[in-house]
């Protein structure tokens, strides 16, 4: 809970109250330890989400750039761009599925 002093002075007369306070303190410490890893997992979730976004954007934009370059140099019209976009989407989703199937560290 907090580091505030107890509401009463320990008299030692009632062992049940002292035992209860000790059990409450131990339970609070266990709860604090149980909650702490959640902050680390939130950071891991943020990194995972950023990776998925980068994979999606990188695959799609990479396919567009490569397809556009093929169109420019080969003069194939929109077909190189369309095929590059399709392949970029396939690669992006393959990377996302691969990342989703990895076990957490």
Could you describe the 3D structure shown?
- Helix 1 (15-74) packs antiparallel against helix 2 (78-101).
- The two termini are 31 Å apart.
- It is rod-shaped and about 95 Å long.
- It has 105 residues and is mostly helical.
- It has helices at residues 15-74, 78-101.
Overall strand count? 0
| Mean pLDDT, all residues | 84
- The sequence of SSEs as H and E is HH
The structural class is mainly alpha
Biggest sheet overview: none
List low-confidence stretches. Answer: none
- Total separate domains: 1
- End-to-end separation in angstroms reads 31 Å
How large is the share of residues in beta strands?
Answer: under 5%
C-alpha Rg (nearest Å): 29 Å
Shape: rod-shaped
User: How many helical elements?
Assistant: 2
Search tags:
2 helices; rod-shaped; single chain; mainly alpha; 0% strand
Please outline what is shown here.
This protein has 105 residues and is mainly alpha-helical. The chain contains two helices and no strands. The chain has one domain (15-101).
Task: Please outline the helices and strands.
Elements: H1 15-74, H2 78-101
């Amino acid at each position: 809970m907090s580091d505030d002093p107890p509401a009463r002075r320990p008299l030692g007369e009632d062992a049940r109250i002292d035992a209860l306070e000790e059990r409450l303190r131990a339970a609070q410490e266990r709860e604090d330890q149980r909650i702490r890893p959640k902050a680390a997992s939130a950071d891991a979730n943020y990194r995972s989400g950023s990776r998925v976004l980068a994979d999606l954007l990188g695959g799609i934009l990479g396919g567009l750039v490569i397809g556009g370059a093929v169109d420019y140099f080969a003069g194939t019209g929109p077909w190189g761009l369309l095929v590059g976009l399709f392949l970029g989407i396939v690669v992006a989703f393959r990377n996302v599925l691969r990342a989703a199937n990895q076990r957490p560290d």
